[in-house]
Amino acid sequence: MEFKINKEIFNIAPTLKVGVLALSGIDNKKNVTKFFDEELAKVTKSLVHKFDGIELGAYPLLQRWREIYKSFGERKARSSIEALIRRIVGGKGLYRINALVDLYNLASLNFELPCGGEDLDAMNGLLELTIATVSEEFLPLGSTEIEHPNKGEIIYKTGNTVVCRNFNYRESDITKLTEDTKNAIIVFEDVMSNELNLEKALDWMSNKAKSLLGAEVNMQMILDAKQPELAKI
Q1: The whole model's pTM is what?
Q2: CA count, 13 A, side-chain hemisphere, 149
Q3: Of the residues 66, 140, 149, 229, which has the fewest C-beta atoms closer than 10 A?
Q4: Would you state the pLDDT for residue 125?
Q5: 3-class DSSP state of 80
Q6: Secondary structure of the chain: what % helix, strand, coil (to 5)?
């Protein structure tokens, strides 16, 4: 499989960097509850303290993501990292999905980066971060009805199938990670020009996937405007 970023996206988000992690041999039925609970308690304490008295919309990271979303016509959706932070500071905690999703949600919060993951075996050929034309088809999580993205919306897609809408905001039921997932791609999105933080997020995620889920790391890389493509995953 190949992965590429449509170069036109860098007109919307010039500083965008996408950290890519390809994993194989995942045991996604592992019990990570103890680790998850301990890590979630730490990150919750940190974020509640950090955002005490601060309006989320005034936080530079979240401001930047809102600006990017508005630039391609999205007024209501928020970046996945804003949604996660809002849950934590609002005292709602995190949903438990499965081990790999739980781990990347922790990574997303720890490093304040939008993050998503897809089952590589549910895709074939090319995974693209691109601009929607409306003709693409999207099956939302838990739904049986096909939707279409808005024209100009930034999406992940494989073929004509939308993998995720509005960057990593809304996940497809077709390529979602499940307990049976063996091979996966994880992506982190950075728009704050903090490559060191992005590298740390990738390292954290790869280490936890190996130590907790027995996964192998097949590839770990950062894509940007200068290098927007991966020839093979």
Answers
A1: 0.96
A2: 31
A3: 229
A4: 80
A5: helix
A6: 35, 25, 40
Domain 2-230 has CATH 3.40.30.10: no
Is the Cβ–Cβ distance between 174 and 201 less than 8 Å?
Answer: no
CA dihedral 230, 81, 167, 208 (to 10 degrees): 30
pLDDT score, position 233:
80
**Res. 76: pLDDT tops 90:** no
- For residue 87, what pLDDT band results from cuts at 50, 70 and 90? very high
Dihedral, 203, 207, 209, 210 alpha carbons, nearest 10: 140
Q: Where are the domains of the chain?
A: 2-230
Reported as a single tens digit per residue, the pLDDT across 132-156 is: 999 999 999 999 999 999 999 999 9
Residues 29, 123: Cα–Cα separation, whole Å: 21
Q: Does 231 score more than 90 pLDDT?
A: no
| CA distances in angstroms from 10 to 14, 156, 203, listed in the order given | 4, 15, 25
- Which single residue is written with the structure tokens 């979240």? 62
β-pairing, 126-131 vs 2-5, is parallel
73 exposed, middle or buried (CB, 10 Å; 0-12, 13-18, 19+)?
exposed
Strands (E), 104-215: 115-119, 126-131, 154-158, 161-165, 170-171, 184-190
Q: How far apart are CA 233 and CA 218, in angstroms?
A: 8
Strands (E), 91-215: 115-119, 126-131, 154-158, 161-165, 170-171, 184-190
Does 115 have pLDDT greater than 90?
yes
State what percent of residues in the chain have pLDDT above 90: 96
